[in-house]
Amino acid sequence: MFHQTVLVLDFGGQYNQLIARRVRDLGVYCQLLPCDVPVEQIKSAAPIGLIFTGGPNSVYDETSPHISPEVLALGIPVLGICYGAQLIAHTLGGEVVHAEKSEYGKREFSFLKENLLSGGIPQKSVCWMSHTDLVRELPDGFETLAFTASCPNALFGCEEKKIYGVQFHPEVAHTEYGNKLLENFLYAVCGAKGDWTMKNFAQEQVEKLRALIGNGKVLCAMSGGVDSAVAATLVHRAVGENLTCVFVDHGLHRKDEPEEIMRVFKEGMGMNLIKADAGERFLGALRGVTDPEQKRHIIGDLFIRVFEQEAKKIGKVDFLVQGTIYPDVIESGKGKSAVIKSHHNVGGLPDVIDFKQIVEPLRDLFKDEVRKVGLELGLSEEIVWRQPCPGPALAIRIMGEVTREKLATLRDADAIFREEIARAGLTREIWQYFAVITDSKTVGVQGDFRTYENVIALRAVTSVDAMTADWARIPFEVLERVSTRITNEVKHANRVVYDITSKPPATIEWE
Ligand code: XMP
After folding, report:
1. Which of 84, 270, 301, 500 has the highest Cβ tally under 10 A?
2. Active site residues
């Protein structure tokens, strides 16, 4: 099946995935590729347009990435953003200069004339600038299309060649009409048809999976998270009972989660879903363990062993489903960075399961697209918008040793927090929110009695991609309600604190 494609060439800017997501959201399939992708690869992808992203470099740095003039001569429309715009000017003979002061923040920009990118945008509006260098002289054949007080070529282009450069960032929400500008580039300049919709994607994937799998046997590790839920549902649509899902109940899930997963997928959808009850084994293996990395390793290893045992009962399988999504694919193409935490995502399963092929039905999708596919497939908002939960689940939200008592206290406190966030209508604004049980006890007075009980910490962050995060400014009244309810309703908790640390220096999870 063929979709029109836009290639986004990545020059290392912080908003690069955001650009790709915006393009997809506008109904055009796009891929994010490294900026040094060979010209031949670009040609063979036959894209309807190219976008050069921003990046941290100056075109004059010795090590800064460049672009072959050949790419600009392919006759494919190009939009360069920030560094990408400077690179276009520099490559085609214009002049880029180092400004005395960096420009950072909201600026008003004005169009000089109507052009293909200006449709539906007022003559003056607000854009988001973040740069030091700027384009002073344009290459031959190019003209200024818009300017700001301090940036003479905020937008420039050559309508004949369909090559444009924009100094500000249309992809960020602070640029009022940024989405419109991108839409104009895609539809008015590149001739996009808008053939990338999640309804089409779901239908096509089901057909593709059916053709690939045929009568083969498929195995899927179901965690209940949105990725594995949507991946399993797609495969289930395609091959029905030839799919077997295994849900490892490690006893560390949030309140009512295992029951919910069984209710939705087994009873509701009729999926062949096996629950492996391994709570006792996990608690036993974690007894006395307090080190976060050790907890992660124990849980990761045992998870694989339990899954392997269940899979053996099923017999030989042909395919193993993985919930890999596009950001994982992009990340895995990059260099190695320091291990902060040993994330576990059923990553070790392919080593212990005997199968012919891995199936990754979501590897082309961003998270927001996975959610849309889920809704197309009839999954509930609750499942599709479920809070991300790390593989080791509550074990790394319990500081110190994991015990049955601490698990029960945390589950109840966490459920109250989630309930109140939902009641306040904040579920979409806050990226992730959960409770932690600290390893501290403090003195309290409840009724007329002295208590000496656990401190519960609340963690809530806003984020785009979990790489960086800020603590969420939850209204005090909501925090007050959560605190009152936890200290009244939850056993063994007499104090609630709110975590006001960003990432970095902290991480989102506490362990
Ligand atoms: P941190 O704590 O590193 O978390 O700032 C970033 C995001 O990753 C999630 N997380 C995990 N996800 N397996 C996962 O699948 C893990 O072991 C794991 N540890 C952390 C965390 O919840 C946050 O969304």
Report:
1. 84
2. 82, 169, 171
